[in-house]
Amino acid sequence: SQTIHQWPATLVQPVGSPLSLECTVEGTSNPNLYWYRxxxxxxxxxxxxxVGIGQISSEVPQNLSASRPQDRQFILSSKKLLLSDSGFYxxxxxxxxxxxQYFGPGTRLTxx
Amino acid sequence: EDQVTxxxxxxxxxEGESSSLNxxxxxxxxxxLFWYRQDPGKGxxxxxxxxxxxxxxEKERLKATLTKKExxxxxxxxxxxxxxxxxxxxxxxxxxLIFGKGxxxxxxx
Lengths: 112, 109
Fold this sequence. Notes:
The complex is a heterodimer of chains A (112) and B (109). Chain A has 112 residues and is mostly beta strands.
């Protein structure tokens, strides 16, 4: 069976500090991978998605970036965090575009 | 304008009181509609996929249905453990999933 991991589970970072969130998937190969941010009252916002190693598409301009160094690893980064980056970050995978996505447990980020 | 609208935003039920959640969408060329359950502080859990009008899926006390403009999630004789936020998402060819803002269901005993 497939499993998706995210870490850390919670993170408190000062404004201007860097960020690195990691997501890994087990039990499948060549998955589509996604990063979402969920803010209260605003629903799930797609940030990045990837259909393969080194292939990243950005949905929303921002100070965040994503990388996919390995087939089942997806990383969300920032060089300098803003207060507005606070939120619940979710990683998800699917077998291909348009099929159901399976979500990880999420990372709660608070920027102070 | 939201392409996926869920109603109501919040719903309170007594245990055993059946009801329905609505997800209406305005996208054309729907290629799939997805229902998820999300517990506080956790990632969404996949429930159902519906592909064409008239299709129905069931799981325990939940049944999802689809028409050309909306989907319903029917909850029959709910229990307190059914309390969660239910999310709807649609897929339009060539785009990412578009999520609604969810309906928060509270079931009291």
